Amino acid sequence: MSASRLPERAPCAAAIMPSSTSDAAEDAGTTRPAGRPAHGSAALVGAGPGAPDLLTVRAARALGRADAVLYDALLDPAVLDLAPPHARRIDVGKRCGRHAMNQAAINRLIVGLARQGLHVVRLKGGDPFLFGRGGEELDALRAAGVPVEVIPGVTAACAAAASLQVPLTHRDMARSIHFITGHGSDGTVPAHDWAALVRAGGTIAAYMAHRTLPAVAAALVAAGLDVATPAVAVESASRAEERHVLGTIATLPALLAASAPSGPTLVLIGAVIGLAEAGATVEARLAA
Ligand SMILES: C[S@@+](CC[C@H](N)C(=O)[O-])C[C@H]1O[C@@H](n2cnc3c(N)ncnc32)[C@H](O)[C@@H]1O
């Protein structure tokens, strides 16, 4: 992958929001290359957790065919270098004043660009179907009759587990993995079935939970989770600035608050996380 260079960006999300779907491509400053058929398509593409070399080969191929790439703010610019020079790079996560482009506007933009005959890549962090609103974009594209492909990506929990060298599942320690969000649409912790999560005895991967971790931890402990259960927060998994904060479900909320993460942060909870602390093998841990 070539050295990263800052891509050409739309000046501001608000400035490229289409007034209707039909004029979206012109508003975004993107024109259809000569010879391109008038029916476009879209791909919802997982960009992985941040390291450019965790992009899949299929995702790289989709980027290589793109006429327009809509991406979120945290993306490594090196990934955008895979798109052809003519492709328009549009940062839909960029903030104008205090506002990022809202989901409805992003949906309209993808549809509008595809209707101009362009191949549109909607590049999303991690996997597009895990806490990524990929389903909403898929619905909008289907409703508009735009052909769409979905390309999976490495989700943050898998990247964090790989860095820690802990298995998310293990036949003797964790027979399930539960992806939960710590952040509901109103900003508070969603009403998960905490008792069911604890009963399952698997590993919990809590996305968007670093601010709500005190409430998440309290709910799990109230539902019967052992206070000594190992837990870890992984900030910026797979990136150069990756950091880990290791503790238990009882101690991690305060430890994490003290470490004040500024990058995307994921919390993993469960017996397997104890393997990270000791650097022990599964067999050694079970024998203890
Ligand atoms: C809107 S969700 C998107 C998740 C993404 N679709 C995925 O599959 O990883 C954003 C949350 O994912 C987690 N996340 C994403 N990238 C991360 C990374 N590199 N390291 C740690 N957590 C990450 C954080 O919990 C962050 O708040």
Q: Give the domain tally.
A: 2
SSE succession: HHEHEHEHEHEHEHEHEEHEHH
The CATH architecture category of the largest domain equals 3-Layer(aba) Sandwich
| Estimated radius of gyration | 21 Å
Q: Provide the low-confidence segments as ranges.
A: 1-27, 280-288
Ligand species: S-adenosylmethionine
Describe what you observe in this structure.
This protein is an alpha/beta fold and 288 residues long. It has helices spanning 13-16, 24-27, 57-64, 77-80, 103-115, 134-143, 156-164, 194-200, 213-222, 252-259, 274-278, 282-287, and strands spanning 41-46, 68-71, 88-91, 119-124, 148-151, 177-181, 203-207, 230-235, 243-248, 265-269. It folds into two domains: 13-151, Tetrapyrrole methylase, N-terminal domain (Cobalt-precorrin-4 Transmethylase, domain 1); 156-287, 2-Layer Sandwich (Methyltransferase, Cobalt-precorrin-4 Transmethylase, Domain 2), CATH 3.30.950. The strands form two sheets. The protein has a five-stranded parallel β-sheet, with helices on both faces. Strands 6-7-10-8-9 form a five-stranded mixed β-sheet, sandwiched between helices. A hairpin with a 7-residue loop joins strand 8 (230-235) and strand 9 (243-248). Helix 5 (103-115) packs across helix 6. The longest helix is centred in the middle third of the chain and has 13 residues, at 103-115. The protein is elongated and about 65 Å long. The model is unreliable at 1-27 and 280-288 (pLDDT under 50). Bound molecules: S-adenosylmethionine. Residues 49-50, 125-127, 130-132, 155-156, 160, 207-208, 234, 236-239, 264-266 line the site of S-adenosylmethionine.
